[in-house]
Amino acid sequence: MLGTIIGAIILGAILGYLAKLILPGRQNIPAWATIGAGFAAALIGGVIADLIGVGETSGFDWIKHGIQLVLALIAVSWVAGAFARRRGTGGQGPGRNPAG
Fold first, then answer.
1. How far apart are CA 11 and CA 34, in angstroms?
2. Hey, which of 34, 37, 70, 93 has its CA 20 to 30 A from 11?
3. Contact indicator for 89, 97 with CB cutoff of 8 Å
């Protein structure tokens, strides 16, 4: 059980940072939020893959990891937007608030 949790955290970190790398622009979010978004994507993506019958295959689970990556892209994008709104930048980045 502990190995599964540690594996999910590591996979979450990889997925979160890969999503930040793929997404256009700069996602100004802290490391813990990036890893948390990736962790959630890894867990939810694994459940979805199991539900559709592609969670465990012989070889590398391409479909499962693809689902997890798509969910990580969505999660990191959402978290970056939430942090931008919280900081009052409106998604424009630091110091680029047109209203301010």
1. 12
2. 93
3. yes
Crossing angle for the helix pair 2-22 and 62-87, to the nearest 10 degrees: 70
Secondary structure (3-state) at 5:
helix
Q: Can you tell me the distance from the alpha carbon of 45 to that of 26, in angstroms, rounded to the nearest whole number? A: 24
Tens of pLDDT along the chain (100 residues)? Answer: 788 788 888 999 999 999 999 999 888 899 999 999 999 999 999 899 999 988 887 888 889 999 999 999 999 999 999 988 887 755 555 555 555 4
Q: Specify the pTM.
A: 0.78
CB distance 81 to 39 below 8 Å: no
Do residues 2 and 67 make contact, with C-beta atoms less than 8 angstroms apart? Answer: no
Measured distance CA(28)–CA(80) in Å, rounded: 6
